[in-house]
Structures are given as structure tokens and as C-alpha cells.
Design a protein that fits this description.
Blueprint: H1 3-21, E1 43-45, H2 58-68, E2 72-75, E3 78-79, E4 84-85, E5 88-89, H3 90-99, E6 103-108, H4 121-124, H5 136-152, E7 157-160, H6 169-188, E8 192-196, H7 229-235, E9 243-247, H8 248-253, H9 258-264, E10 269-274, H10 288-297, E11 302-305, H11 315-327
Parallel strand pairs: 1-2, 1-11, 2-6, 6-7, 7-8, 8-9, 9-10, 10-11
Antiparallel strand pairs: 3-4, 4-5
The structure holds magnesium ion (MG).
Magnesium ion is lined by residues 196, 247, 273, 306.
């Protein structure tokens, strides 16, 4: 299956359905001049900023994020071959973040033996990522250097951001086994390991069909149609070795209600990617209040603002507008 086309097609269908109910294009919100409420505990997935993060002075850009109200960040762009993040020495990167008042609880890293690119945009354009069971041990082995580098920087979580190319239910179970073995590697280094979803994890293996099918508004699927990838991943991974980071936007794109998942899998979903169609809060399509309330009720804390489209040239501006929204919501702690 061509995953990129699969994802693209699914998103466009869902966005089309949304656009039908929202003909009015929202104007870009004003940029926050200062933080509304500095007590809110919120983080950023730095993938959202694309190359803008590295334009000019990185230390100043970190301070700008802190001034927006961010308390912590999740990395993307770590390179196992160089131990650099976005081309910056990991130790130096961490020091600049710390100096700016930004903690780094987690980092996105695709398995080096599975994807050729580093975590973030490069891996999305990679042509590999095809999974087979013979790779399980090799993948876990390839994570040892990742675990070592991240342990040195005191990073609490490493998250695998992408599903491999999978063909059938046995592949899904094999991928879950790969997560388990990789989780053991991280556990030995004192790091928690997890998996981050897109929409295709909510596809089901429909009886009589090859591959996977994602539900749409017009063609919902139920358990009677066949098992869902996400359920298989959660049911076949060891909770002591593998947690999950739920991307709210991609969950909705998969025609799922994040609140239901947070209730049913309270002990598995450790962190959130808080994302809207573009600027947080702008579409009105994401029920952040109910989602956050359930997340807090589950006793979890790390929430990362994320923006998917990273080529706008307006990433900082959009993040500032997003944080203005987040920090003004009374339900955000
Ligand atoms: Mg995400």
C-alpha cells in the first residue's frame, strides 16, 4: 500500500466533509503580544516550526517560544549518526533550551533500521519503511545508540512517530512485537518508549479485502467489519514497555473520538499532540475541553501543540496565535 497516498486521500476526504459545513474562511488571529496566563502547562512539538526554528539565532528562537508560554518541547530531527538535533549538537541544543526555560521531556525518533531519514519531515519522504518480521531484532538493536544519546540528555520519553508499511494482520502484530523489543532497549536505559499515531492506525482489516480500509464519514466501519490496527497495537504491546502518544488531529481524521480512546485506554495514552486544522481553536472542530478534561482525569500531563503544515513561512506566527488560544482557555491547566 502507498501510505502517503493513503494518508493524503483520507485527509482530503475528511477535510472536504468539514469544508462543506464551514464555508467561511476564518481570518488569521492576531499574534499574541504576551502570554495571557503564564501558569498554563503546555509544550510544543518542534516539528511544527519546520526550518523557521533554525532561522536566525536558535537560542533567541527558544526564548521566543518560552515567551509565548511554552514550558517544554518535544524534539524532532534527532540524527542517530551525528547525535545532532536539526544539525545542532545534542548537548548544545539541550543547554540552549534549558537556558531559555524549556524542558525536553520527549523526542520523536523513527527506528534507524526501519526508516532512512531522521525523525520529522525527512522520514515522511523516505522510500523505505516496509516492515517484515526479520527486522524486529535489527530495529531494537538500532535503537541502542538512540537510547544512549537520549539517556545522556535526561530525556524521559522516546516516541516512534510513524507506522511502517504493513500488509496484513500478521505484520501489525509483528510491528507490535518490534515496539515491545524496542521498548525493552529503552527501559534498560531508563527511558520510556512510545508510539505516535496518524490516521491510518484507525483503519480496519475488512474481511474479504486486501490491505486496510480507513473509515470515512460516509462509510463508517465497526468491529464487525474487522480488527482495527490501533487496537491490535495496544492489545499486542506490553504496557510496561510501550506507551502511546495520541495525535488528536489524526485521530479525528481517522473518524475517531479522542475522548472515547482516552476513557477506554486511560493507562496507555501517556501524551497528546494537540492539533487543529491549522491554528489551534480556529476551526471549532476539535473538542479540546472534553479531551483535556479526560486527559487530566487520567492523571497525565504532557501536551504538545503541533501544526502539520510546516511550509507556510508563518509557523511562529501560527504558534503564537495557537498559544494565545490555549493559554486563554479556562479548562487548560
Ligand atoms: Mg503529531
Amino acid at each position: 500500500m502507498d501510505r502517503r497516498n493513503f494518508l493524503k486521500g483520507a485527509s482530503m476526504l475528511s477535510l472536504g466533509a468539514l469544508a462543506a459545513c464551514n464555508n467561511e474562511k476564518a481570518a488569521a488571529p492576531a499574534v499574541a503580544a504576551e502570554v495571557n496566563n503564564p501558569d498554563k502547562n503546555f509544550g510544543i512539538q518542534i516539528y511544527s516550526l519546520g526550518n523557521e526554528l533554525y532561522a536566525g539565532n536558535l537560542a533567541d528562537n527558544f526564548k521566543r517560544l518560552h515567551d509565548m508560554g511554552f514550558k517544554y518541547m518535544e524534539l524532532a530531527g534527532y540524527d542517530v549518526n551525528t547525535n545532532k538535533v536539526g544539525g545542532v549538537d545534542f548537548t548544545e541544543f539541550k543547554k540552549m533550551a534549558t537556558d531559555a526555560g524549556l524542558a525536553i521531556p520527549s523526542s520523536h525518533v523513527n527506528a534507524p533500521a526501519l526508516f532512512s531519514g531522521v525523525a520529522g519531515r525527512e522520514s515522511r519522504d523516505g522510500s523505505d519503511g516496509q516492515f517484515n518480521r526479520s527486522m524486529i531484532d535489527k530495529v531494537a538493536e538500532s535503537f541502542k545508540k538512540v537510547a544512549e544519546d537520549h539517556a545522556k540528555q535526561g530525556i524521559e520519553y522516546v516516541i516512534h512517530p510513524m507506522l511502517a508499511y504493513l500488509n496484513n494482520e500478521d505484520d501489525v502484530k509483528g510491528f507490535a512485537e518490534m515496539l515491545n523489543k524496542s521498548g525493552e532497549v529503552f527501559k534498560a536505559a531508563g527511558i520510556k518508549f512510545g508510539f505516535h499515531n496518524h490516521n491510518m492506525e484507525f483503519a480496519r482489516m475488512v474481511k474479504g479485502e486486501a490491505g486496510f480500509r480507513l473509515p470515512t464519514v460516509l462509510t463508517p466501519l465497526t468491529a464487525a467489519d474487522g480488527p482495527m490496527i490501533m487496537d491490535l497495537l495496544m492489545d499486542n504491546t506490553d504496557p510496561s514497555s510501550v506507551c502511546f502518544e495520541m495525535d488528536l488531529y489524526w485521530t479525528v481524521m481517522g473518524q475517531q473520538d479522542p475522548v472515547v480512546w482516552l476513557k477506554n485506554r486511560a493507562n496507555r495514552i501517556e501524551m497528546l499532540h494537540v492539533k487543529d486544522f491549522v491554528v489551534l481553536g480556529e476551526s471549532g472542530a476539535m473538542n479540546f475541553k472534553n479531551i483535556f478534561n479526560q486527559f487530566y482525569a487520567n492523571g497525565k500531563k504532557y501536551m504538545y501543540a503541533e501544526i502539520e503544515d510546516i511550509d507556510s513561512g508563518k509557523q511562529f506566527e501560527r504558534m503564537e496565535a495557537s498559544m494565545k488560544f490555549i493559554t486563554s482557555q479556562p479548562y487548560v491547566k
